[in-house]
Design goal:
With 127 residues, the protein is mainly alpha-helical. The chain contains four helices and no strands. Helix 1 runs antiparallel to helix 2, helix 2 crosses helix 3 and helix 3 runs antiparallel to helix 4. Bound molecules: fe (ii) ion. The site of fe (ii) ion (FE2) has 4 residues, from helix 1 and helix 2.
Length: 127
């Protein structure tokens, strides 16, 4: 098992941050698995093998969604931005910019108070 999900000395990181980093790594791995299955499904000709791989990819969708939900529950600003983008109709980039603005971070990559995650602006947001 690798420890490369840490970019700071793990012993200096609080347990909550280590858990967060583990779930971020897991989210990445689930997304990779979904992409790998997508490629395998695109080239496989055996119907039984296709059925097995479709089932496996569906499991990865579930794993990805559970990882994401965990991380969003732990990160109010991320959750607020995701709420404005996920399951919305229309232009994705526009929704992203509006979600970022709505979270008090400004559009195009932030621009809020330096060093602020905008958490204060979410007070009373029902998170
Ligand atoms: Fe998985």
């Amino acid at each position: 098992m690798g420890f490369d999900q840490y970019h700071e000395p793990p012993e200096e990181l609080p347990a909550r941050t280590r858990t967060f980093a583990r779930l971020c790594a897991s989210l990445t791995e689930e997304a990779e698995a979904i992409g790998w299955y997508e490629q395998r499904l695109a080239v496989e000709q055996d119907p039984e093998a296709l059925a097995v791989m479709r089932n496996a990819q569906t499991e990865e969708f579930k794993h990805f969604a559970m990882d994401l939900e965990f991380l969003l529950r732990r990160t109010p600003v991320w959750r607020e931005i995701a709420r404005g983008i996920l399951f919305q109709e229309g232009d994705i980039v526009e929704a992203g910019e509006e979600a970022e603005e709505g979270a008090g971070l400004g559009g195009s990559g932030g621009g809020g108070q330096p060093g602020s995650l905008g958490i204060g602006s979410l007070k009373g947001a029902g998170l």
